[in-house]
Amino acid sequence: MACLAQSNEGTDFWFGFMEHVDANDNNKVVLITSKQNTEGIVSIPGLGFSQPFSVQANQVAQVEVPLGTEFIGSETVKNIGINLSSNLPVSVYIHQYHGSRSEATLVLPNESISTAYYVMSYAGISAGPGDGFSEFLIVATQDETTVNYQLTDNTQGGKISGQTASVTLDKGETYQVKGQNTFNDLTGSFIEGDKPFAVFAGASFAGVPSFCPTYDNLLEQMTPIDTWGTRFVSVPTTDSDEDVFRILAAENSTTVNRVTQSGTMFMHSLNKGEYVEYDSDSANYIESDKPIVVAQYLIGQGCIESLPNQDGDPSMLLLNSVEQLRDTVTLFNSHLQNITIQFINLICRTDDIDIVKFDGALVQADLGLSFTPIGSAGEFSFLRIPTTSGSHTITDPGCGVIATAYGFGANESYAYSGGASFSKINSNQLPEGGCRGIDVTFSSGLPPDRYELEWDIGDGQPLRTDDDFTYTYENLGTYPSQLIIFDKCFNERDTLNRDMIITLRQAVDAIDEIELCEDEPINFEVTDSGINIPTGGRVSFEWIGPLDYFAEEQYPQISAAKPEMSGTYEVVGIVSGCATFPDSTEVNVNPTPTHELGESTTLCIKTNKIPVLDGG
Fold this sequence. Notes:
Layout (H helix, E strand, L loop, with lengths): L8 E7 L11 E7 L4 E7 L4 E7 L4 E5 L12 E2 L3 E17 L2 E7 L6 E5 L7 E2 L2 E2 L2 E7 L4 E6 L13 E6 L4 E5 L11 E18 L7 E7 L7 E6 L8 E7 L4 E7 L4 E6 L4 E6 L3 E15 L16 E5 L8 E6 L5 E11 L7 E2 L2 E2 L9 E3 L5 E8 L2 E6 L5 E9 L2 E8 L13 E3 L3 E5 L7 E6 L11 E5 L4 E11 L4 E12 L5 E2 L2 E5 L4 E2 L2 E2 L11 E7 L3 E3 L5 E2 L8 E9 L2 E2 L3 E8 L26
Parallel strand pairs: 34-39, 41-49
Antiparallel strand pairs: 1-7, 2-5, 2-7, 3-4, 3-7, 6-15, 7-8, 9-16, 10-11, 12-15, 12-16, 13-14, 13-16, 16-17, 18-23, 19-22, 19-23, 20-21, 20-23, 23-24, 25-31, 26-30, 26-32, 27-28, 27-31, 29-30, 32-33, 35-37, 36-38, 38-39, 40-43, 42-46, 44-45, 44-47, 47-48, 47-49
């Protein structure tokens, strides 16, 4: 069940652009919208690029980024990550296009990304402007981020299907992986890191379905596994043409049941990283017993019959689970690259259809539009709304809505989801434990109007119903704790359990001082030999230091020291939720010596004496 109500709105974002089939010859645009007047900066530290922006409420600001932000190549590290920071929350989208080949995606803020992903991609194609390849891009948001990935197909860097590889990235650095051949598909590749990072995936050029003779680039930000759900509603993008879908599982022995709008039922059995592909021209209700992700692919215009003038082309989006409903969502319909037909798909609880508003107007009473029910008992409803380019706001004061935006033009399309929450609904929010005699914080982060809570903190105390509170444990030991969450919208209960471990506050021992020369590596070290780790417990570490340095390793390293990195680096150990007393390491980085030889001088040697240069 959810803990923190993350969304697509935020004030700090990291992202990048994958390789386009028209490499080094495509436009890359950042689109920013907000519910309030605000300002911010789009910067690319590795390229020395910085551009301020301002955006008015419910309007759109556009920033075009330079040519060098497109990652070209495979399995190398490039310092071309893009950062967007703003004073107030904004929604961010990126659009990459050239000729009749364009694609867009929502960008998630840093608080909505995480540390584990599966890739949803598609095989490439060889046609027209060149060869296209399946690909994914990793963007680091913190220094010294170690990322491990396991491949499902061969790559251009010589790695093979099933191989595991690792890369370490600093903040803003990017790493792209491309399939070896056009027919390779990296879907199902698993990526995991020790710090949060962003992942984008798709293809530089692809046909959807593969036999359709019209192609486009595919681009979508991947959602973390801990935000996946078990219930989805898919809505067609046209009246009669089929979309292509893929369902991918996060765990072994996952059972997926799918019901079409007409009542036809399908069942799929998947192991972790496996997916099933199908096409459908109707709405579907999808339910699984373990977390899944669902991708929807718009097909090429060569296979579309319902749109005029050869409108449409391949595009992809990840669907949000109906467990991620949100009371207010803002989406942007793009006009770029000759998009002329715009839509937004809405999904909500059937009980809420009379109170859903689109840009301030009641959808049914004011706009005269009608929802269509779907689900095993008709508990959800959907609607496809024709609209215009620009920013749109959808509200539901009941249980909330999910929205996706897409559009068509001559040989063109784009699509992205994002009008939803991105809460980490697959994680346990009970604390691991804490220190004896020090407050332990309990917090659900859930909207109190929707959820009712019952906390059993395991110390013989009465059940608590607060949204958040602190409690001090006076005795050492293991405390079986429980959180029961009642979702009033779904009329469901979810129970979380954890054995909380309360320990004494202990101490760590770090190296007292490190002195070295510029560009040498800084090797930090802290010993845990004096720490007593209780049975069932674990220990982790956190370092902080100058220039906003942060690391979560016991032995972190900075590969190339600079004088400005000199200062105090503090470390704490965290033993099952109990932070140790801190220790610190003083670092002194000596700059590389410089020598002043003075002005140039011409000497005429008329003696046997050897001239001596004074190094000054």
